[in-house]
Amino acid sequence: DASADTSVVGYNVYRDSVLIATSSSTSASDSSLVPSTTYLYAVSAYDSHGHESEPSASIQVTTKSTSAPVISSISGTPSDGQTITLRGAGFGIHDLDLEWLGGAEGAIEQGNLGDVFSKEGWLVDPDSGGFSSSRYDDGQAHSGSEAIRSNIDSTPEQGKWGAGFKYDRGAPISSIYATWWVYTDPAEGEGGQWKMWRLQPYNNYVDCDGEIKSFHWYEENHDHSMFYVMITSDKDDYAQSYPNGNADLRWLDNDDGPNTKQWTRIELYAVESSSPGVRDGTFVYNIHKQTEPVKNLMNWEDDIMSRALGVEDRWQYFTFQNYWGNGNADNADFWIDDIYLQFGTRARVEIGDNPVWAECTHREVQNPTAWSEGSIDITLNQGSFEAGDEVYLFVIDEEGQASAGYPIVIA
């Protein structure tokens, strides 16, 4: 063993029990790797006398694929709600661990108008105190005829400033892919702060350690005045959460925020840090305005800290907070539709309006029902596309690589 009374001067790095590197610091690299291959790494310490400690417990690492998925054929009738089978290669694996609330037979479209939104695993703010309950509503809908409406009336007579609902995973969330469509409608002449969503460890709205959240501020003419995503591994020292400890990265261009009175799709992928105090988590954030190609706003792979040292509680809730307040904000409506939450992978199937993934201005996520390396079954989600539209099927793998678009015409 490295001597207890002699300082450690270096480290040995083992891959699959074979020494591959030594380092005098706490970092090392390994470049001679094969794509899509799993390796076991361990580290030992040594002192100035050449004494070496026992190797650490091994960690498992799988290298990324170098090729995108390929769709070679499909079968089935491409109409809304029907099963389509995609065949090809490079699809990877998928446990189908997801919550899909969209589609003609989904929880949103099947809700009774005016009733409080209800689904197993979901929690809804009560009609009490400063809260009002989110309800099934047909005032706006991205697809079909219904969406979940959160109505805010914070006038002195009503005193309602929040109308949120959240999914309770019931266990720690190590990674999540989430997407939804939102329609924002503040009262004319009102400006204020909209708190849209949170990925958080607790069932409340108190700012805390170990969460990610999105805030928006609107002027009275409804132009964006502030737009940012807060990653708070430690709410009192959140700079360390961002790449290179740069807290200024939280600010986003105001023009990229969701416009009012327009359906916008929000999309995020988050992976927690491997342990507290380690900046190796992931956060990717996209916005779909349908007036320009889908835009990536944040793209930090293995470069965020989700929990600071000493923060043990992990993500468990994905929350649509829908707070509207501050400024002269009193009244607003928020409609949310076609919610898709997925755990353990970002691999998915989508349809888009362009054969090139990066050039799509309109995409709709699909509901997978079976998945293997060479075959995927989906229930086709037409979304706001119409019958007769030519669209393109895409398979996106765990690394975020998209296939070439496969053309279909919605029947």
Descriptive report:
Helices cover about 0% and strands about 45% of the residues. It contains no helices and 26 strands. It has strands at about 10-15, 20-25, 40-45, 60, 70-75, 85-90, 100, 120-125, 135, 145-155, 165-170, 175-185, 190-200, 210-220, 225-230, 265-270, 280-290, 295-305, 315-325, 330-345, 350, 365, 365-370, 375-380, 390-395, 405-410. Strands 7, 9, 10, 12, 16, 17, 18 and 20 form an eight-stranded antiparallel beta sheet that branches. A six-stranded antiparallel beta sheet has the order 8-11-19-13-14-15, with no helix packed on it. The radius of gyration is 24 Å and the shape is globular.
Largest sheet: 8 strands, antiparallel
Helices and strands: which structural class? Answer: mainly beta
Number of strands: 26
Could you tell me the radius of gyration in angstroms?
A: 24 Å
Helix content range: under 10%
SSE diagram, text form:
Elements: E1 8-15, E2 18-23, E3 38-47, E4 59-62, E5 70-75, E6 83-89, E7 98-100, E8 122-124, E9 135-137, E10 147-153, E11 165-168, E12 175-186, E13 192-200, E14 211-218, E15 224-232, E16 264-271, E17 281-288, E18 295-304, E19 317-325, E20 331-343, E21 348-352, E22 363-365, E23 367-371, E24 375-379, E25 390-396, E26 406-409
Antiparallel strand pairs: 1-2, 1-3, 3-4, 5-6, 6-24, 7-20, 8-11, 9-10, 10-20, 11-19, 12-16, 12-20, 13-14, 13-19, 14-15, 16-17, 17-18, 21-22, 21-25, 23-24, 25-26
